[in-house]
């Protein structure tokens, strides 16, 4: 059956508006469409393809596991899930892991765990969850309500209650909202969808102190910032603040769907049998691929390489900006970077993204005013240089079309 981009409009619900080209093959940081045109990939499947496309070791992991076991259900455990959980615990603060299929599901589990922990230990009145404006935590009804963008949660009827929002990096406002009724604070240690906003280090430390003061749990949503993306295995490691619960997905599977919630033994014990679950969570196929991806990323050479590649990106982006004067700042850390547009270009991030695509570069937006890059952590330097040359042509096209 021959399908094209126009087939999408005939068969799919219209909640996405995909590009006109249809990718069919990828290798490393390069992708080819139906017509055989080649693109450089700075989008990384939205910070998912942590090792690029079809990494030989991940391909081998899929092939190997696909001939053993695909799925069992959680009536049984399996070796890849146990090995991956042990490796995650060994590499982080955590002692207990819960597996899901996505970041939203990992966040759903984190929020339910926090509420159950508070109920068990303090009673039903300790139910307030505070999150941050412009934050993003997924699209389930609970996680989208906790996310700080009302446009995503409005229009679906009554929302889950006892959820409030504070401005990111505003410790004073947070302190005024918190009390012993606060059950949990949920935050991204680097805001992704909200515009690639880095946290002030004192803010993060202050949030941790406020949580300790009010017996509240600190939940770090590291769905986008985790698994090497910032040059640390998890972003919390570079902030010197340890959360009580951490969620991870996206890059964890290197392109294969998997999510995980990490926590301590003491907190984790509140998810007793029957309190939460997932049919596919922890399936052997996903865990085998994620185990291999984690092994490769959690290596000083790869993590140091992320820092070096960030410097290369910034150097070229600054040169582009010197020429065209379109960016207010280059934000972010590691291989999660955002070009924030100057006021005269506000609302036009998508125009820049589309112009880049026309030059055969795949990139992303983070809101209407920020162009986002989330490439493979092992993208070759020559692909960075060539990709940014293409991006420069896209910038020129937008600027000159004014």
UniProtKB/TrEMBL annotation:
Q: Which residues bind N(2)-acetyl-L-ornithine?
A: 139, 278
Required co-factors: pyridoxal 5'-phosphate
Binding of pyridoxal 5'-phosphate occurs at 103-104, 136, 221-224, 279
Give the record's pathway: Amino-acid biosynthesis; L-arginine biosynthesis; N(2)-acetyl-L-ornithine from L-glutamate: step 4/4
Q: Which organism is it from?
A: Alteromonas sediminis
Its main subcellular localisation, reduced to a broad class, is cytoplasm
Also noted in the record is: May also have succinyldiaminopimelate aminotransferase activity, thus carrying out the corresponding step in lysine biosynthesis.
A Gene Ontology molecular-function term?
A: identical protein binding
Q: Which family does it belong to?
A: Belongs to the class-III pyridoxal-phosphate-dependent aminotransferase family. ArgD subfamily.
- Reactions mediated catalytically: N(2)-acetyl-L-ornithine + 2-oxoglutarate = N-acetyl-L-glutamate 5-semialdehyde + L-glutamate
GO-annotated cellular components: cytoplasm
Against InterPro entries, the record matches this protein to:
Ac/SucOrn_transaminase_bac, AcOrn/SuccOrn_fam, Aminotrans_3, Aminotrans_3_PPA_site, Class-III_PLP-dep_AT, PyrdxlP-dep_Trfase, PyrdxlP-dep_Trfase_major, PyrdxlP-dep_Trfase_small
What is this enzyme's EC?
A: 2.6.1.11
**The keyword Cytoplasm is assigned to this record:** yes
Q: Which PANTHER family match?
A: AMINOTRANSFERASE CLASS III (PTHR11986), SUCCINYLORNITHINE TRANSAMINASE (PTHR11986:SF113)
Protein name as it appears in the record: Acetylornithine aminotransferase
Q: What does the subunit section of this Swiss-Prot or TrEMBL entry state?
A: Homodimer.
């Amino acid at each position: 059956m021959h399908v094209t981009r126009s087939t999408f409009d005939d068969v799919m619900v219209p909640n996405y508006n995909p590009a006109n080209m249809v990718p069919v093959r990828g290798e490393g940081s390069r992708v080819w469409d139906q017509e055989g045109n080649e693109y450089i990939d700075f989008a990384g499947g939205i910070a998912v393809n942590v090792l690029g496309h079809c990494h030989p070791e991940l391909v081998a992991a899929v092939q190997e596991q696909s001939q053993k076991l695909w799925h069992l259900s959680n009536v049984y455990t399996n070796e890849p899930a146990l090995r991956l959980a042990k490796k995650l615990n060994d590499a982080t603060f955590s002692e207990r892991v819960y597996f899901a299929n996505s970041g939203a599901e990992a966040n759903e589990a984190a929020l339910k765990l926090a509420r159950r922990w508070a109920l068990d230990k303090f009673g039903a009145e300790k139910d307030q969850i505070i999150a941050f404006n412009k934050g993003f935590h997924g699209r389930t009804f609970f996680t989208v309500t906790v996310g700080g963008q009302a446009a995503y949660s409005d229009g679906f009827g009554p929302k889950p209650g006892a959820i409030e929002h504070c401005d990111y990096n505003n410790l004073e406002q947070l302190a005024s909202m918190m009390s012993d009724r606060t059950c949990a604070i949920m935050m991204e240690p680097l805001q992704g969808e909200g515009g690639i906003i880095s946290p002030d280090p004192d803010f993060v430390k202050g949030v941790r102190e406020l949580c300790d003061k009010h017996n509240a749990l600190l939940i770090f949503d590291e769905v986008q910032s985790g698994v090497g993306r910032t040059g640390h295995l998890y972003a919390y490691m570079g902030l010197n603040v340890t959360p009580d619960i951490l969620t991870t997905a996206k890059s964890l599977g290197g392109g294969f769907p998997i999510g995980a919630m990490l926590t301590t033994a003491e907190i984790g014990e509140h998810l007793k049998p029957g309190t939460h679950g997932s049919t596919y969570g922890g399936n052997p196929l996903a865990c085998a691929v994620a185990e291999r991806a984690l092994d490769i990323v959690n290596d000083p050479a790869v993590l140091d390489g992320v820092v070096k590649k960030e410097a290369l990106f910034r150097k070229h982006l600054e040169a582009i900006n010197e020429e065209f004067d379109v960016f207010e700042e280059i934000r972010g850390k590691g291989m999660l970077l955002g070009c924030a547009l100057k006021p005269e270009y506000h609302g036009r991030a998508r125009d820049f993204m589309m112009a880049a695509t026309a030059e055969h570069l795949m990139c992303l937006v983070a809101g209407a005013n920020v162009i986002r890059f989330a490439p493979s952590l092992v993208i070759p330097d020559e692909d960075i240089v060539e990709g940014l040359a293409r991006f420069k042509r896209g910038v020129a096209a937008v600027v000159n079309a004014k």
